Amino acid sequence: MADWKNLDTLDSFAELSAKKKVILKDVMSGDGGASRVKSYTVPMASGLSYNYAAKAVDDEIIEALAKLAKEAQLTEKFAELYNGEVINTGEKRLVLHHLTRSQLGNDVVKDGVNKREFYVEQQKKIESFANDVHAGKIVNGAGEKFTTVVQIGIGGSDLGPRAIYIALENWARQTGNFNMEARFISNVDPDDAAGVLQGIDVAHSLFVLVSKSGTTLETLTNESFVKDALKKAGLDASKHMVAVTSETSPLAGNSDYLAAFFMDDFIGGRFSSTSAVGGAVLSLAFTPEVFARFLNGAAAEDKLAANEDVKENPAMLDALIGVYERNVLGFPSTALLPYSQALSRFPAHLQQADMESNGKSVNRFGEFVSYPTGPVLFGEPGTNGQHSFYQLLHQGTDIIPLQFIGFKESQLGVDVDIQGSTSQQKLCANVVAQIIAFASGKDDENNNKKFSGNRPSSIIVGKRLTPEAMGALLSHFENKIMFQGFLWNVNSFDQEGVQLGKVLAKKVLAHETEGALKELSDLFEI
Amino acid sequence: MADWKNLDTLDSFAELSAKKKVILKDVMSGDGGASRVKSYTVPMASGLSYNYAAKAVDDEIIEALAKLAKEAQLTEKFAELYNGEVINTGEKRLVLHHLTRSQLGNDVVKDGVNKREFYVEQQKKIESFANDVHAGKIVNGAGEKFTTVVQIGIGGSDLGPRAIYIALENWARQTGNFNMEARFISNVDPDDAAGVLQGIDVAHSLFVLVSKSGTTLETLTNESFVKDALKKAGLDASKHMVAVTSETSPLAGNSDYLAAFFMDDFIGGRFSSTSAVGGAVLSLAFTPEVFARFLNGAAAEDKLAANEDVKENPAMLDALIGVYERNVLGFPSTALLPYSQALSRFPAHLQQADMESNGKSVNRFGEFVSYPTGPVLFGEPGTNGQHSFYQLLHQGTDIIPLQFIGFKESQLGVDVDIQGSTSQQKLCANVVAQIIAFASGKDDENNNKKFSGNRPSSIIVGKRLTPEAMGALLSHFENKIMFQGFLWNVNSFDQEGVQLGKVLAKKVLAHETEGALKELSDLFEI
């Protein structure tokens, strides 16, 4: 059994903290800089690679990070996780999202069920359902084909599937893998559902209701909203609704739904994109094959995360460098900057995955830790961000570590040549230019035009954003978050911090308020 | 003339820093908390109000902030700005975006032109053009009406207009103010333009090219991309393109465009939503009247920003509290959390407006400052965020000040009653519950379920998100940013930090690279 210890009790962390700091500006200059770019790189799956040349590390620090990985038993802990130990100690649950796409270790059998087989079975059920919808075997009340799929879910049931849909939508349209337009309803704000319903043809829409417990307030409210609209249009709601839920939820085995696909308590919402939560909507919008390719990319990347050697384990190395930046260098936030418009909502998904997992002050034993844990994560696609918040990243008073993503080729292959280069070349030229601008800076006698440099970044370089590459990217960040949770010794798989707001909101709706809460409720005339 | 001094040289700042800190948990409890909610509020325009009851301030600190406002001469500086002084000292320019919607002071005449008249003239030209398009007087080559308007622009030419379009789209559809679907092309990533073009009917699309200088690389590249697509469809591009630019740009007086609408050097990109940059696309998508109503909201809010009394000047008070949080309490980031799905991209716009304006290390005289300036700003709409990053906001190791926005009524008025309350009531109940959860926390014998509280927030409360309310919101935050720039003594109106990346990207495209930059370029096979 692995030994769970606080980061600041590890000898290797003290050693790491004492290491001489790297002046990025210096190490990135001249031949040294060139050789860093060549050697500070780790291969990933699906033709991606993780390059950390522009991070404030050197061979000595990498060695210290490797020691830290070893002392913190990162690979052992990951092995315990994928072999079915109760890693989510707060909720006393296994953590099995990796099993939705691969099996890295032993069979995981829980309550007599082989969990890998269970997840594969759900995927097969979705495949068959989606194929029937696409073939016109499952149709609406008038016997017509469905053209639109609407996911109703919030948080993990929304952000991941939505980000991946946006990432692959244009690619799927172009490659003949597109079957149904997808839309998403998430917010309890009635304008969200009303706005989506205003823009679709409900008679030809299939609604996928996603709630593990079957009790999520926002989702059930939006379901009623949609059922109301279906009824007003003279339609039979049960012919338009599908559920993704757990087998024990009120939504399972319920004749209100055309079909139900299952997940379970061992798939956290923010890690559920590769389960039926992502599977239903993505298989319907695209094809089951596209979803399978996406899972294959994630599976291949998971495999690398099991490697002991940090130089063969990009997620672990990325995690370690992030902890070094947070706990030794003291940077409180990080930006995720994909140079790909298709990844426009991937930062919003990782914002949840990261901040909800590691935004904790208490360790796995319920003791307060005395070091910072999860940072603020934000981001927008480049080059857009360059014309937005990059001013602060370059010349602001704080240093914000950056995580770039870029692809050699565009997704759609449609391009124009202007001033001797294609748009894709301009896009790539911009991301590499930014890396050097941030790292090396530029002197100027006018302080206003001076760039101090020493602003660290990493980059994941890919060939093209395919379903496999998307799967690998998702797995990389999921596993990075997991390793950072291990290092901070927090439980990355619960979210107790969301409870108090729910309890107080119920009180407000029941008019059981006093003091400031009552006055605030009055402001809104609730 | 106002006296421009660094924040840390002001006596009132030293006084403020020495004030006893407020324990939010304590002051928000009981009758004291209730009376704070009632009294710590400032009326805004268009039926909005700014409530700061849950900020870590009290009467003494507010008094100290008022002194700071006075010593920093905030209203005098604003008056200099709207009366046409060269406030953008780096670029030696006036700062006139307020004049696009109101005139707060003297006539501003520059190079013989009355600038208020100039901006109004542009608005009238747009009004007449949009009316002609809507009436079918300006049509495509086949004599058919345009159905779609596509804005081609990046940064300030994209984020603000896009956020406002999204904010008012459903409202406009419902109220009969909707004329044309709007789309946006911004990124130099060719997949952005290709994706948008894949989804529209180019033959019935009008493209609005927005570039003040007429030289923005991304925008010109995307223009070529679009012209290529028009040509391939056998269409005459000059019958589909409109320019928004400065009178001296190559795009002005050019027969390649159906019409040109002008802005000038005194309208910064990130403050240009109320100029022709927002005016053209919003007047075409909705109606010129909707755009005028939006400007009226901004004008009314601007007027409040000229008030000397901080308790009658919500933008100034908000700015002062933000500086107190950044420079006295030491919080490095802030989250903007609108409880309105329609405002889903407003945080992205303010991320630019705020971080590009005040992410500076150098004061107005080119000297490095020794205090933190602009914070990281991020955000997503609630309740979605509650199911995403709120875990970290509640229980993370860092405190992140929050800025909520909420409305009593939904925009569309379509709602359902579930479990005794409407969706809108649930939405409002959630935002007030969050304010108290963050401020007051909750004790628990299980540390994992403990909420430390003392996490400050403010809220802007409105009746309904109308064009006027949207204008008031935009003005509030623009003026807040301006006042914070005055306090930090930085030039909020230039953006030298974006230059270095551009220079290096050009080098990469010209293959004039060496060292790390060359190796990185090789990674992308540029």
Main β-sheet of chain A: number of strands, strand sense, barrel status? 6 strands, mixed
Low-confidence spans of chain A: none
Could you report the average pLDDT of chain A, rounded to the nearest whole number?
97
Would you tell me the structural class of the helices and strands of chain A? alpha/beta
Strand order of the largest sheet of chain A: 1-2-15-12-10-11
Number of helices of chain A: 18
**Assembly type:** homodimer
Percentage of residues in strands of chain A: 5-15%
Shape of chain A: globular
Radius of gyration of chain A, whole Å: 24 Å
Helix proportion of residues of chain A, in percent? 40-55%
Q: What is the number of beta strands of chain A?
A: 15
Distance between the termini of chain A: 52 Å
Largest interface: A-B, 158 and 157 residues
